[in-house]
Amino acid sequence: MTDAAAVSALSSDAERIRRSGVLGRPGQLTRLFDFLVERSADADPPSETDIASEVFNRGREFIPGQDAVVRVNIHRLRKRLDDFYLRHGLSGPDRLALPRGEYRLVVETAAEGETGDPTPAQTPAARTTSQDGLRPTSAGKLSPDKIAISRRSLFLGAAGLGVAHLAGWGAATYVNSRPKGFLDASPWSVYERAAAPLLIVLGDYYIFGDTDEKGQVLRLTREFFINSRDELYQYMMENDDLHYRYMDLDLRYLPTSVATALQDLAPLMARHPSAQIIGASQVSPQMLRDHDVVYVGYLSGLGPVRHPAFRGGRLTVGASFDQIIDHKAGRTYDSEAALVPPPQGLVRDYGYFTRFPGPTGNTISIIAGARDIGLSGVAEAVTSPTVLKSLPRIRDDQAIEVLFEVEGQNGANLKTKLLVAQQRDPSTIWTATPLN
């Protein structure tokens, strides 16, 4: 096939593919397709980094080996092209294809007289007008009846990561009115002696789109076992049928009680003005190794710190994340705040606190609630010098677990009761042994 014929074949099929709707509504796949069509006219195909920057708005932080956004969407586009030719058939002996291991569109030509697989021929493509690099906004146009809410899949629309900035401002203005005595008490005094940088981790929810057969987002989804973009891409790679359904929207949401909890921690952040604040969906194992860490959020948002949070103790989180299990006492504590609709009057919730040594001798603390009332209650309790005096004193190399019962109303905690406070065995926290 001559270059001119290849250009004509590619342009013709590219337009048929666009008109067919197989790529879905304008978004990630359509931007990727248009970009590849345009760049196929170049002598050198684009690199993974080029695509990440031009199509998916990744900046200098993009690391090809760690961020699979390009590979996953190339895989999705390849499957959509296969579907197009299965449904609509070939217009001739040629078809548009994405060779495996490459980031370019080519026209595959079946050799005359052969019945086997077509042989790819590298050909240039006619240029087309590419779309802008903005991220899709279809999620913002969803009507309330298209938002899925369930125990496993939920949409928290109350607050985004912008709450972190609001909370940071609140912490700065609140610091002079909050007692500073808790920093000198066990278990917080270790942060005063620490040399590692401080990392405040917010329990954000990673939200992705669930789409129809044409790629239109029908609902926003939260899965408790998918806490980051990498975990979403890995799950999609392991389940081919989900390439048509799940879409990365780069959305993260926070419970509103995180802002209240950060206000209680204002003195700690004031003592460490260079502390970083990031979402749990952005935490890497290296961060847990190299930083002193304080997690603030729901039990269901623990992400990478869930397993070390409970090893070596008597408490674990239940499968629904609205439940704390006390294995020693043989009882469970279920959050009433999880009930829909909630009961009238006071609601009983639960808050969990633990502090333990990290893998390199650093320090990790977790302030977590089943829901808002529990989180607000535990954050206030473990930063109260009066409450801290009632907890066991621990050395820097020891670990503690604490459980509070919190009663409240309309998201505000009104009464906090200490249920469990004891040391954990730190020797099993960073091992491969299973949870209780």
Automatic annotation (TrEMBL):
Residues 118-129 have a biased composition (Low complexity). Residues 110-142 are annotated as: Disordered. It comes from the Bacteria. This is OmpR/PhoB-type domain-containing protein. It comes from Brevundimonas nasdae.
